[in-house]
Write a structure and sequence with these properties.
Strand content of chain B: over 45%
Mean pLDDT of chain B: 94
Order of helices and strands of chain B: EEEEEEEEEEE
Oligomer: heterodimer
Largest sheet of chain A: 6 strands, mixed
Structural class of chain B: mainly beta
Shape of chain A: globular
Low-confidence stretches of chain A: none
Radius of gyration of chain B: 13 Å
Number of strands of chain A: 11
Helix content of chain B: under 10%
Distance between the termini of chain A: 40 Å
Low-confidence stretches of chain B: none
Helix content of chain A: under 10%
Radius of gyration of chain A: 13 Å
Shape of chain B: globular
Mean pLDDT of chain A: 93
Largest interface: A-B, 22 and 23 residues
Amino acid sequence: QKEVEQNSGPLSVPEGAIASLNCTYSDRGSQSFFWYRQYSGKSPELIMSIYSNGDKEDGRFTAQLNKASQYVSLLIRDSQPSDSATYLCAVRSRSGTYKYIFGTGTRLKVLA
Amino acid sequence: EPEVTQTPSHQVTQMGQEVILRCVPISNHLYFYWYRQILGQKVEFLVSFYNNEISEKSEIFDDQFSVERPDGSNFTLKIRSTKLEDSAMYFCASSGQGGQPQHFGDGTRLSIL
């Protein structure tokens, strides 16, 4: 069973700090990785996609991928109270499918 | 920015009744998906659709479920005889190509009584 694991949290960080969110996946052949933000009762909103090992930066967000260790992380710099949400890690496996396998999400609380 | 739109936002139905959830994917997207999220649980894949046919479905997507693209813009999910355990948020998503990021609609909250 292909799994995506996240710490459910809550992860609490003070405003202005760096929030670090982690995700591990079991399918070594997974190709594409996505971070979504989900506010309570709302839909997943795409933040970042990453396909290659290394770092990818977009504004205050940096996604990091390490395929050898099968983990992907998301760093949020200068965290704001509006960043408080659940962050979902989604993985697309290699098996000729385009479906995403989601983790349970990490709830982030940014304290003002 | 183009959006995926879903209607209705909330559907309340008696157990055993049929429901149809509607989605309008982003206009130039070719791949369409349905996911569901039971309250407090993870987002789960139901079905993917491309070129007017189902390309993949999960074990959740049994004979009670069907999908259709009745015209050039709508994409629907039908549940023939709803059960209590079908209560969930149902999300439609679309992507331009299969490997491109999927964009989600706001969801339909389905409540089965």
